[in-house]
Please model this.
Amino acid sequence: MQKLKREEIQTLIEKSYKCRKNILKMMRNGEGHIGGAFSSLDILTVLYNKILRHNPDQPKWPDRDRFILSAGHKCLALYSVLADQGYFAEEILWKYNTFDTPVAMHPEEKRLPGIEFSTGSLGHGLPVANAIALSARLDKKNYRVFVVLGDGECAEGSVWEAAMAAAHHKTDNLVIIVDKNGLQVNGRTDDIMSSSPLDEKFKAFGWSTRTINGHDFGQIFDTLSGVPFEKGKPSCIVANTVKCKGLPYGEDKYQFHHWHCELEEIDNAINLIGVEMGKELDKVGK
Amino acid sequence: MPASAENQDRIMEDPRKMVSDALVELGAANSRILYISSDSSQGASGGEFNKRFPERHFEFGIAEQNAMGEAAGFALCGKIPFISAYVPFITMRCFEQVRDDVCKPKLNVKFMGNNCGFSVSSLGPTHTVLEDVSVIRSLPNITIISPCDGPEYFQAIFAAAQHEGPVYLRMHRMKTARVHKDDFKFIIGKGEIMLEGSDVTIAACSTMIQKTLDAAQILADKGIMAEVLNISTIKPIDRELILKSSTKTKKVVSVEEHSVVNGLGSAIADVLIRDNPVKMKMLGTEDVFATVGGYSEMLDYYGLSTVKIAASVEDFVLKRT
Model:
């Protein structure tokens, strides 16, 4: 299997941390779901830069791979990545948290190119995604459907209804990545409603599963490059992540699920993001 | 009129058969038509479709939240999914999927609520839902159709398929007497005058059309000439027809096999209170959960038998109630 070169990983790190900085700039307009955006950002960065077959100039290209952000509140990550990919001008991001904005706190398909389906209420993404994947079969197309779910979201029953359906219908062009940051609005997922062990649960539902470090770009790429893991089965990747990854004082804190930041904090936070990016780049070497 | 006499010399049709026939004909002409079920195809309208087009029938088991989301996903990909399940499960169990995933993006999902009203009243109030119109009517972008006879069921399926956007189709289980002629043409949003009259307007839908036409006969024998309207599209409602008829008769009675809370009667009242506030009476169930019983027993108990409709309208016209 082809591996990412060191330079490619460096580029991905730079893109991912640039997106984190842009998210903080967006939050100059007020609060946001920074925790889940930062925990899922490395996954989205690999997906959009290395895995998805897509064309920002033709967002509705019929043969494109689809991406559904079932955990819609993580959309700051999606907005920043879509802007980086060229789906729309970066200036659109600065309209965050303004009246009738195209970049709202939950993504809406009709407001922005690149959003496949409006999400926000948890547990809605996977049923829709499975049908999109089944439509590829009906239409004799080869596209794949990727979905990001939160681990807290997996308490929703509809996730498991859809998990059962995808396995039953052998939807092997469907891939989910669970952003398992272990935290939700009110605390640790294991304390509120434990969803562990997610990999074994999805396996028991008929999925082929892998568990990875959701901040290891090489591992994310290698795993996503290997889908479907088994012919005739949908694929599930449980990605262990850190909530608010990249902002040291917010990391692994549930209080950063939805951050009400002060304006004067933003510049300092952006500087800290820069320092963290340097550390990540040092890890992969010069 | 005795109940046994009501069905004499009438062509009785099974709504499920009419819908099944329509779906098969549609499916043969248009490969975008899908049928989605939640362990609900055989007893409803999907059995024949499944036999003819198995690759376009998707079974999702007893899991309506997922099934409705799947329907939205198919519609997003250009399909026209007809999704079928018992009324409570397809309107309330998955209400948020209907709202967020179907109505808000205005997707081409046609969801069919089987066994509306007292269709299966012996199963008790979990299955006898008298609030489906109430909850679904509150959603923007939705069209609600409640057909009254075989031709209307058949044509409503075709109209729903042609309509761009979500449609809720109410399916009754009881065989219905044909009240439409061969040249009938169903149009979404258009009501129709089933019987002309001058003393009172009776607006109804579904099973209550036949009951109301029979009640009008009883009233006519007493010198009360009722105008009977079939308001089969509950949303968007035919304002023009309601205003025209109520301007003539100055009295309106709504009749529905449903709660009077936010059902057909409320939809009519919304029109009248704004543009022609005439006297109105609503017949249906009050703010209650249904009891258990056979179909005719239920209609009688809730005042929706032919005789009781006639008596209620007579009292209203003669200002006794």
